[in-house]
Design goal:
Number of domains: 2
Shape: rod-shaped
Radius of gyration: 25 Å
Largest sheet: 5 strands, mixed
Strand order of the largest sheet: 2-3-4-5-6
Number of strands: 7
Helix content: 10-25%
Number of helices: 3
Length: about 170
């Protein structure tokens, strides 16, 4: 997902471009491509190019209750400034940024959005993803997925000390 910004770097501050994104990208780093679609806006700033975007990324997650794989779209909103490494007019290398985590425009004046999309996607994934809100999870005795129905395990013997409480149910 690369965009050549050499022409935009030559334009005055405030110039902008909009791009539609509809590509397959490896955003999780596992070698499998995910569909990424949406729109990004490139804005010329006094330092470089500001990119603002809203993208939908299809990710494969593991349910934290039943451990099944499922696909879910994740919406990411991002805003990052990319700084040039080479002056577009003269071709002279520019001093590097003091910001260690800043994104850069390469020596061919191309912006690669994959790393920013990957970082924002990983931040947007829920900490405890669920395949559905009413996921029943796994039975703790045998590990059967309770979303597929009850397991065939024999009923557990009730501790006689708790038998009085079972009458309340």
């Amino acid at each position: 997902m690369q965009i050549n910004v050499s022409q935009l770097l030559k334009e005055p501050i405030g110039s902008s471009r909009n791009y539609e994104v509809n590509e397959i990208v490896d955003v999780t780093g596992d070698g499998s491509g995910r569909k990424v679609q949406g729109e990004v806006r490139l804005l010329r700033t006094h330092r470089g190019i500001l990119i603002q975007g809203e993208l939908q990324v299809e990710v494969e997650l593991t349910c934290s209750r039943c451990l099944c794989l499922f696909h879910r779209p994740v919406t990411i909103n991002f805003e990052e400034e990319y700084l040039p490494t080479i002056d577009v007019a003269s071709g002279v290398p520019l001093p590097s940024s003091d910001e260690p985590s800043s994104f850069v425009i390469d020596e061919h004046h191309v912006i690669d959005l994959i790393e920013a999309i990957r970082q924002y996607t990983l931040l947007a994934i829920p900490m405890k993803p669920l395949c559905r809100q009413d996921c029943a999870g796994l039975y703790q005795g045998c590990g059967h997925n309770l979303n597929q129905g009850p397991c065939d395990c024999p009923p557990q013997a009730i501790d006689p000390r708790w038998s009085e409480l079972s009458e309340l149910l």
